[in-house]
Amino acid sequence: MYLAAVSVFVCATVLQTVVAVPLLNAPGCPEPYGVQTYPHPELCDQFFLCTNGTLTLEQCENGLLYDGKGNVHNHCNYHWAVECGPRKAVLVPLSSPGCEYRFGIYPEGPHCSTNYIKCADGYPYLNHCDPGLAYDDKTHSCNWPDLLLDQCNPEAVVGFKCPDKVDPHSISAKFAPFPRYSIPGDCEHLVTCVNGFPRLISCEEGKVLDETSLTCEDPEHVPSCGHFKKK
């Protein structure tokens, strides 16, 4: 088999460093055209790359590993998103200000934040969560603040406090057990209360909030928001 033959070749030549030139005397790529990648049989931070029939051994950048799915940089993915199985992962931090690895996603600080740091080539870039969300270091993504109660105050993040009681005759009550509320002057969002905590919901592209029904509609059907254009 192709990969078995490559494995024998690599083990025999003991290639452990970055190789950016064609592998001499290696088996040919299974596809003569296009770009294909294949896992290294032993190492999770290296992989084989076939480019129009030319085979090279590639090294993932610091903080990245190969899984055949991710494409954060050069076909590699963040290390925490990769299941290496029996392949060995060599992860040595190369710290720079704000970045543990050259590539990674990190919290802005120890407290609840609607921002996060995305490192690329060792440089930290500040990114913003969508409105109403906060960064979750466990999932490396933005999340509802009511799912982060150990560090976040949902009311502070969303800017809304859910009422203790819902008028049973109100429009909000029609959406129980997750009552909805409008935000004065905001044509783009509504608030849904989940277990007493607010979640900011955005209307889909091209829609605006109708305060009389608490649903998102076409702007021409909502006179108060007919002028609104989603950014």
TrEMBL record:
Annotated GO CC locations: extracellular region
InterPro entries assigned: Chitin-bd_dom (IPR002557), Chitin-bd_dom_sf (IPR036508), Chitin_bind-dev_reg (IPR051940)
Domain Chitin-binding type-2, chain residue ranges per copy: 26-86, 96-154, 159-227
GO molecular function: chitin binding
Domain of life: Eukaryota
Signal sequence annotation: 1-20
The entry's keywords: Chitin-binding, Disulfide bond, Glycoprotein, Repeat, Signal
Pfam families registered for this protein in UniProt: CBM_14
PANTHER family: CHITIN BINDING PERITROPHIN-A (PTHR23301), LD20793P (PTHR23301:SF107)
Name this polypeptide is given: Putative peritrophin
Organism: Rhodnius prolixus
Source taxonomy: Eukaryota, Metazoa, Ecdysozoa, Arthropoda, Hexapoda
